[in-house]
Design brief:
With 149 residues, this protein is α+β, with helices and mostly antiparallel strands. Helix content is 50%, strand content 17%. It has two domains: 92 residues, Winged helix-like DNA-binding domain superfamily/Winged helix DNA-binding domain (Arc Repressor Mutant, subunit A), CATH 1.10.10; 56 residues, Dna Ligase, domain 1. A hairpin with a 5-residue loop joins strand 2 and strand 3. The two termini are 28 Å apart. Bound molecules: zinc ion (2 copies).
């Protein structure tokens, strides 16, 4: 992430917290910094490791506040473990690959033509199910590069 994009990210987060009368504290900035550098969604335990000096109680509080403000996207894996990442309005549309060996989750991006194919599949699904489908998030499974070696 370039310095400019990084500054814009913090500015977007600050603006949306200010609109809710929430302060953009140093601890919250640290969470945003760490998530913006992570290769995929992070659990609270992983963030605790990676944010260093942010105390656990303040980390949990920050995650709750940022989640409620729509800055984070929270997802739960099959075991119910919550992982957080920056919401797509901040980082862009993408999908996830989940490792069936170690459980790690990594961001993956599809090309334009692959996204277009997916949209066609979903349009068909709208017709066959009667759902008005408004978005998608793909989760693919497999064995990650470090578990494969
Ligand atoms: Zn793995
Ligand atoms: Zn992601």
């Amino acid at each position: 992430m370039s310095a400019k994009v990084h500054a814009e990210l913090h500015e977007s987060v600050r603006r949306s917290l200010t609109a809710r009368d929430v302060r953009y504290t140093a601890g919250r900035r640290k969470v945003i910094d760490t998530l913006s550098e992570a290769p995929g969604p992070r659990s609270a335990a992983e963030l605790l490791d990676e944010t260093h000096d942010v105390p656990l109680s303040s980390l949990y509080r920050s995650l709750t506040v940022l989640d409620e403000a729509g800055i984070l996207r929270r997802q739960h894996d099959a075991d119910g473990l919550a992982r957080y990442e920056l919401a797509e309005w901040l980082t862009g549309h993408h999908h996830h690959a989940v490792c069936t060996d170690c459980g790690s989750v990594e961001d993956i991006e599809l090309g334009e033509s692959e996204e277009a194919s997916l949209d066609r599949i979903l349009a068909g699904l709208s017709r066959s199910t009667g759902w008005d489908l408004t978005g998608h998030s793909l989760e693919v499974e497999g064995v990650c590069p470090s578990c494969r070696t």
